Amino acid sequence: MRSSSGDYLAVGEQMIQRLTERVPELRDVLPVAEIGDLEDGDRLRSPMAYVAYGGDVAVTSSATGAAVKARQVWYAVLAVRNVRPTAGAVGDSHREAGPLISKMIGALTGWQPAAARAAMTRVTGPAPSYLSKFSLYPLQFEVDAMVQLATGE
What we know:
alpha/beta
């Protein structure tokens, strides 16, 4: 059984590494805390992705409290800079996003992070968001993680 030794959010860093390796077209792959304000996104490089923890459901814990198994929810969000489309045409952000979404799904679906007990599965996630400067395409995944916890002794 795989487990993460003490880092409850280890899967996130492993997702960043995986997307960086498998989707080289992404100019940046960052944790959500490093993104800043996407509405003031002039300094952000496009296309980029960010990874965010979305919560969990505790499944089991050991009798001693030394480990917990949880089904964690993670988001990989593609951010593509908006370009105003010509009349009647699909915006360039959609054209750019489509192949990248496919590659991101392929990179994460069925992959087992070292901190997980099983492979990641893709689940239905939130709808895209269209900001003034970026279009955001959230992809939602679930994974069972087993984390060794400090018992406080």
